[in-house]
Specification:
By secondary structure, the protein is an all-alpha fold. A two-stranded antiparallel sheet has the order 1-4. Strands 2-3 form a two-stranded antiparallel sheet.
Length: 470
């Protein structure tokens, strides 16, 4: 039996009405659309001194550029590992990598707002990854996801999109703090960073609209080159912030790999349990929402909005999260960009295997990650945030019992700067409005249980217990 026959048989390619060529081209397409994560994830997770809100991982004696390059290597390994498992075990054409939104939660909320050491945050990622492996193995994750209220399922992707968008606009200087209105438009015409960010954003959106593969990474690189040219040949000095502060590169990930072990000893049991509790809800339902969103785009959901055999891609996610946390990055999840490969005909694990292989090859791009300024990398967050808004069309807006929980999910996320708060608001409101509308028969015991759990979550996150114990 030849190689092509072996590949066809293993991935059931012909049974899916596809071909090896189609699957490989689909994998290349997906990789190009999501390759920006090699640059963006390190940018989000790295502590950026002097940039408000840019909290994250900082290593003594190392410049942010060095930390970013190490995180780029870790990002690639975690993405390749999870996507390889998706290919071989789940036989799905989905790509996985450290998730946007989850990395922002890690850096801005856990490390930044709560002041938890990044090593301890990584330990929490590893522990929740192990818990997810166990829950997936016994089928509990699939059961809980099926208990997810339908309007919240379809609203999560849009809410995350708005959350990512405001993070990106803030880093680009387009949205700034305001004492009277909380946020307002930045000085776009006079701030070179904001002006170049706007220009780069519209170039990227134009490329994306033209359907050019790799449009996001092209836009990021063009914006970076524009900042370099204006600083080197134009009227601006390096102090203007148009170029990265450091281009030092390190492939040595030993300061990150295994750092979670020291994090296990840096906090007492009760506090660490509360951190796990927080990560559990954010990661669990963010991953579920993203996977459902990908299922929407790829037409993999059944008539009730459920994802058949979801336990296998969930296992790839769980293992990828565990490996990523051990190496030094935030939670791994399925990427909505996988839909681009699906639209090109990808329908089996060979697409994912192609993506995993390309991720390994992208180790050559690590020096680029250190040279990309934060405003340029965050263009990706705005573009993807906009694209994720399209999931809103699947919500039954003419049904008020769907409108309220969906609307709460979508609006609370960006306004509270928290994915978890948005999901919690939607889940808590669902059984309440169903009961008020006299449609209590639509509410299952699982809905009430999730709502009660999220009431506890709200109490833990807003009562000061978590902050006071650390």
């Amino acid at each position: 039996m030849g190689l092509s026959e072996t590949v066809n048989d293993y991935f059931d390619i012909q049974e899916h009405g596809s071909s090896i060529r189609t699957e490989i081209l689909a994998g290349v397409t997906t990789f190009l659309t999501m390759s920006y994560i090699v640059i963006v994830n390190p940018s989000v997770l790295t502590d950026q001194p002097g940039i408000p809100g840019a909290d994250g991982i900082a290593i003594s004696g190392m410049a942010p550029g060095e930390v970013q390059s190490m995180l780029a290597v870790v990002t690639i390994i975690a993405a390749a590992t999870a996507t390889f498992i998706m290919a071989i075990y789940a036989n799905r054409p989905f790509a996985q990598a450290p998730g946007l939104g989850l990395n922002a939660f890690f850096a801005f909320t856990v490390v930044g707002a709560l002041g938890i050491p990044w090593q301890t945050a990584l330990a929490a990622v590893v522990v929740e990854g192990i818990i997810f492996i166990i829950l997936t193995a016994v089928g509990a994750r699939e059961y809980i996801i099926r208990a997810f209220p339908e309007p919240v399922k379809f609203a999560v992707g849009t809410g995350i999109g708005l959350f990512l968008t405001i993070i990106g606009l803030q880093a680009m200087g387009i949205v700034v703090d305001d004492s009277a209105t909380l946020i307002t438009l930045g000085s776009v015409a006079s701030d070179p960073v904001a002006f170049l960010s706007v220009l780069g954003l519209f170039i990227t959106l134009a490329l994306y609209a033209r359907g050019i593969p790799g449009s996001i990474i092209i836009g990021i690189v063009l914006t970076t080159l524009g900042g370099w040219a204006l600083t080197t040949f134009g009227p601006f000095t390096p102090d203007a912030g148009l170029v990265a502060g450091s281009t030092a590169v390190s492939y040595d990930i030993t300061p990150l790999a295994g750092a979670f072990i020291s994090g296990l000893g840096d906090v007492e049991a009760f506090s660490f349990a509360l951190i796990i509790f927080t990560f559990f809800f954010v990661d669990f339902f963010d991953t579920a929402g993203t996977l459902v969103g990908v299922g929407q785009a790829g037409d993999f959901l059944d008539d009730t909005g459920n994802f058949p055999d979801i336990d296998r891609p969930l296992m790839a996610d769980a293992i990828g999260t565990t490996v990523g946390g051990m190496l030094g990055t935030s939670t791994v999840t399925t990427y909505i960009e996988s839909a681009s490969g699906v639209k090109e005909g990808g329908s089996t694990g060979l697409t994912a295997l192609t993506i995993a292989t390309l991720f390994v090859g992208s180790l050559l791009l690590v020096p680029l990650a250190a040279a990309i300024p934060i405003y340029a990398s965050h263009i990706a967050l705005v573009v993807i945030g906009i694209v994720m808004l399209q999931n809103v069309i699947d919500i039954e807006w003419d049904d008020i019992t769907h409108t309220i929980p969906a609307g709460m999910t979508i609006l609370v996320m960006p306004f509270t700067y928290s994915i978890a708060y948005g999901i919690a608001a939607g889940i808590v409101s669902y059984p309440i409005v169903k009961l008020a509308a006299g449609e209590v028969s639509d509410v299952r015991i699982g809905h009430w249980a999730l709502a009660a759990a999220f009431v506890v979550y709200f109490f833990v996150r807003t009562s000061g217990i978590l902050t006071g114990q650390i």
